[in-house]
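Worked example

This section walks through a single chain of length 80. The input is the sequence exactly as stored; nothing has been trimmed or padded.
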Amino acid sequence: MIVCSCQHITDRDIHAAVDWMRAADPMTIVTPGKVYRALGKSADCGGCMSLFLSTLRSNPHTQVPMQLRGLRRAATQEER
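Given that input, the structure is written out below as tokens.
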């Protein structure tokens, strides 16, 4: 399915980019910007962003790695 008609990005492209990023670096935080860069593209009009994000979130590899979860909360607790 076409997700971004401006940049010709499909749901398969997004999933392939996420899978590639996670395989290359298991600790990476997957963001839309990183997906665009991995595909050699950039956001244009933004009309697709809600569909882009829902497609991105449907990939199980977009989860934040367990070792990185709660870091903000831990840092703020140490400051007290």
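What to look for: Helices lie at 11-24, 32-38, 49-57, 71-79.
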